[in-house]
Write a structure and sequence with these properties.
With 70 residues, this protein is mainly alpha-helical. Helix content is 50%, strand content 0%. It is built from 3 helices and no strands.
Length: 70
């Protein structure tokens, strides 16, 4: 569903995603390895589209701080 929505969004916006508003989608994974696999798969699927795929990893220390605040 995410890829379909992004591709439709590109087609309705003259082949361009809105780069000023930041990410169009966020996928959270429990492990780095799964995040890398998903990124690799999405890059293959988006090869001919104007969609950028990027991984962002949190350090464990900052994740612990977030969990303690909640």
């Amino acid at each position: 569903p995410i890829l379909s929505r992004l591709i439709d969004s590109i087609q309705t916006k003259n082949n361009k995603l809105n780069e000023d508003n930041g990410p169009e989608a966020l996928i959270l994974t429990p492990t780095r390895e799964l995040a890398i696999q998903i990124k690799d798969h999405l890059q293959v699927c988006c090869k001919y589209q104007k969609i950028k795929v990027k991984n962002e990893f949190e350090k464990k220390k900052s994740l612990k701080k977030v969990l303690l605040i909640k």
